[in-house]
Every structure is written in C-alpha cells, then in structure tokens.
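quick one, 341 residues, struct below
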Amino acid sequence: MSWVKYLLKRALSLAFVLLGLSILIFVISRVLPGDPARLALGPRASEEAVEALRKQLHLDQPYLVQYFYWLKDALSGSLGQSLYTFRDVSQDIREFYPATLELVLYAAIFNAIGAITLGVLAGRHAGKLLDHITRIFSYVSVAVPSFIFAILFQLIFSYYLNIFPAYGRLSNNIAPPHTITGLITIDSLLTGNFPAFIDALKHLLLPSISLALGMMGQEARITRSSIVDNSTKDFIINMESHGVSERKIMFKYLLKPSIIPTVSVMGLDVAGTIANAFLVETIFNWPGFSRYGVNVMLRKDLNGIVGVVMVVGITFAVINLLVDLFVAYLDPRIRYSEEGR
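---
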C-alpha cells in the first residue's frame, strides 16, 4: 500500500469518525437538563423572548431536524451562534484556538526534550543514583496536577523573583504582531517584530512548563523501560561484542526503537492537553480554547459544546495521524506491513 493510499484511507475513516462524533455529542448536549435559551437570556427575560430565541436556534424542532440544520451550517463553515459570546462559534474558535495551540506546542517541545533526555539517562544508568532521582521526579510530576505547578511557578518566578510575567500572552507596552497564524511567536518572527517575540516567549514559559511537567514523568518512565529492555536484545549485544562505540549504538540503533512507545503516548497526551489545559489557562489568564470550552459547557451553550468537541476530535485525529507517520519512519517494519511486504 502506497503512502498516498494510506493517507486517503485514513482520511476516509477520519470523516466517518467525525460524523459519528458529531451525532453523539449533538444528542448528548441536547438531552442534558436545563433550558439553554433561558440560561442565555437570564431569569428576568420574558417568556416571549425566550421562546423567540428557542425558535431562532431551532430548539423547538425535533432532534433530527436540529442536527440537519447544524450539519448544513457546519458544511458551509458556520458552527451556529454561541449563547456565551453571541457570536458564531467558528469565529470564537478562530480567536481562541491558536492561543491554546501555541501553548500546547511549547509544552510538547519541553515535554519531548525532558522526557526523552531523562528516560535515556535513567535507562543507561539503571539501578544507579541518576535512575533513582529520575524515578522520584517522575512520581512527583505524575502525582502533582499541572495547576499546582502553575501556582508555584507564578508565586516564585512572577511575584517573588519578578522574572516572568504572571498573566496574558503579551505585555501592554508591546505592540502585537499582525495576525497571520494566530500564534504570536510565529507571527512576530514572520513580521520581524522581535520585541513581541521575546515578550511572548516570556509569557509562554511558565504555563507551558507547567503543562509539560504533568506529561514528562510518565513518558520518561516509558522511555527508561524501553531503553533497559532493548539494551538486552541480541542485536545490541552483538554490536557491543564487535566493539561498536557506545555513542553509535545509542543514537543509531537503540534510541529509535526505544522512543516508539513514548511517541505514541506523547501524541495522546498532547492532544488531550488541548482540552484539559483550562485550569492552567485560568491561572495565567490565558485567553485560550480550553478555557472557552469550559465556559460554554457551564452556560449549556449547545453550539459551543458541539463546536469545541468537534475541534478536539479533529485535533486528536490529526495528531494521531502524525504520530503514526513518525512511528512508521522510526520503525521500517511498520511501513512494510502497511505495504503488505
């Protein structure tokens, strides 16, 4: 099977998965107790106004008809009116999603560097002091929630040491770059606005490391276990017996197969962080998509809920596809099995 056919097959299956997800979340959001029109207009709104809003949102129609209206609008690029911001949900997502995407991208970079480095060091020094220190760090990072790290970092580095900013994506005295991608660091580099790039990096550092620490411990342990397991394989012992240098064995033959489980778990963790970063975003007053998702759920904003879940589902699918491609690059046997060889 060629890569083009493989990608087409995955894209087709992704379309069916997203269609099923849209039906599931649409039904779940509708059967939840509470009147979204009443919640949006408040308890003092007249019954006529509430009924008019229900009619405007098609809430007076059967579920099947409501889904038809939603699907028709979604295919034309509109996800319906939000009862939280009273704008189109697609407009909200375009505004909030890049902020969380940028935050999670930096968290993923810190996580990948930290988890693989710690896992390799612990695996190559298994049973020694470095391994024990890494194990303790992993236990702490897994047991302590990310928002606790966020509060500690904010107290230490923002209030006491005054090194990093405590809130937001950019300081008030810095001119924001022209919006191209919505990611401030990328946009500032593309437009040559280097003061904005440095300032955005300072704002990103604390929240992204807080998110990364929650993932780093588990993935460092997975990397360490794979390194220890693969170190006893025949092909590694054979190369050691022929005098191949330890550095060459590590970086050419041992590391690639050992990080495959880590990369798979990392993909799921990063995709999950898109939806689960709301506490860290709230602490750092980060205008992100995850925080928006929690707010639309608390307001029973039906279109907002469906839009957020669909975007999270697409994010999961895209990241899993990228992980599959990267794993196939690391392990040629996976490519051969897909090609039927």
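The longest helix spans residues 194-231.
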